[in-house]
Amino acid sequence: MNELDTLVESARQSFLQAQTPADLENAKAQFLGKAGRITELMKGMAALSVEDKKTRGAAINIAKQAIEAALNDRRQALADAELQAQLKAEALDVTLPGRSANVGGLHPISLTLERVENIFGSMGFEVAQGPLNTPEDHPARSMHDTFYVEGGHLLRTHTSPMQIRHAVQHVKRYRNPLDAGQGMPEIRVIAPGRTYRVDSDATHSPMFHQCEGLWIGENVSFKDLKVVVTDFCRTFFESDDLVLRFRPSFFPFTEPSAEIDIQFQSGPLAGRWLEVGGSGQVHPNVVRNMGLDPEGFIGFAFGMGMDRFTMLRYGVNDLRLFFDGDVRFLSQFQ
Ligand code: DAH
């Protein structure tokens, strides 16, 4: 290999080593620049004869063209590499599944309330909404520990106050002062809503949901209570394989009073008694406070825990999941 071939080869090598266009321009200067090797060789011809100048000049020119060709190849290669890198960086995988926008839905407890309203609605119950405040002298204060707020009121600990609120309105609306209530449509109402107690564990939360029920008429018995609540539970859980137990208890507004327990006959909870609410025959004093004569009017009331119903229906074992706001949990109910 002669001196010129060696020069071309070393130019090719240093161009190949250049990894960026800037590196390549530096390398170019060493060979083709004003003070580069080719220029030096040209200058070195000054002392040669005319004949030698011709052959030497032609040889140097060939070497120069070879170096320029190598430079252009490398320029092209670097440009191609840059383009490839850019394409790779901006690559779109059109085979990836699309990202769907998250569509929200009703909260499981809202689904339960909707369901409860529909079922009781089909049994002729209207739906009442009530305020959250309970006056100072209400029995709620002695039955449950609760939150105290300023202004002589507290957040209601249960939905039972809705009984008297609704009944008084109902009686006022329909009562003919001359007939002492006769001709008045029966009171048949449910009142679902939020309630508050100082409680917090896997099965109790400081805010929870109840649904109150009240049926007052001239001839409404404890038997009707059992039928209504049993029908409701069987419809709610879509199962006839369900038995109820009315366990004697005490509430200040009913006499007699009973806790309502249910038991599934099959499935994961089979055989266990689960408390779902309280109930009883409305106390004569409450009937009187409604503005009715307890000799002529009688009925029952019940209050059920909607969070408990929701847990049982969906197999949720920790109540707190309902209030964590975790979309992974909530999206399972859509
Ligand atoms: N309010 C009661 C509670 O929260 C449940 C209850 C019991 C409601 C008896 C009633 C009833 O309407 O008659 O524990």
SSE map:
Blueprint: H1 3-17, H2 21-32, H3 37-43, H4 50-89, H5 108-122, E1 126-127, E2 133-135, H6 140-143, E3 153-155, H7 161-174, E4 187-196, E5 207-217, H8 222-236, E6 242-251, E7 254-264, E8 274-282, H9 284-289, E9 298-305, H10 306-314, H11 327-330
Parallel strand pairs: 1-4
Antiparallel strand pairs: 2-3, 4-5, 5-9, 6-7, 7-8, 8-9
Helix pairs in contact: 1-2, 1-4, 2-4, 5-10
Bound molecules: 3,4-dihydroxyphenylalanine.
Count of runs of 4 or more consecutive helical residues: 11
Strand content: 15-25%
Average residue pLDDT: 90
CATH superfamily name of the largest domain?
A: Bira Bifunctional Protein, Domain 2
Distance between the termini: 79 Å
Given the C-alpha coordinates, what overall shape results? rod-shaped
CATH topology of the largest domain: BirA Bifunctional Protein, domain 2
Largest sheet: 7 strands, mixed
Helical percent range?
40-55%
The secondary-structure class comes to alpha+beta
Query: Can you name the CATH architecture of the largest domain?
Result: 2-Layer Sandwich
| Number of separate strands | 9
| Unreliable runs | none
Q: Give the C-alpha Rg.
A: 44 Å
Query: Which cofactor or ligand species appear?
Result: 3,4-dihydroxyphenylalanine
CATH class of the largest domain: Alpha Beta
Q: How many domains?
A: 2
What key attributes describe this structure?
334 residues; two-stranded antiparallel sheet; 2 domains; BirA Bifunctional Protein, domain 2; binds 3,4-dihydroxyphenylalanine; seven-stranded mixed β-sheet; alpha+beta; Methane Monooxygenase Hydroxylase, Chain G, domain 1
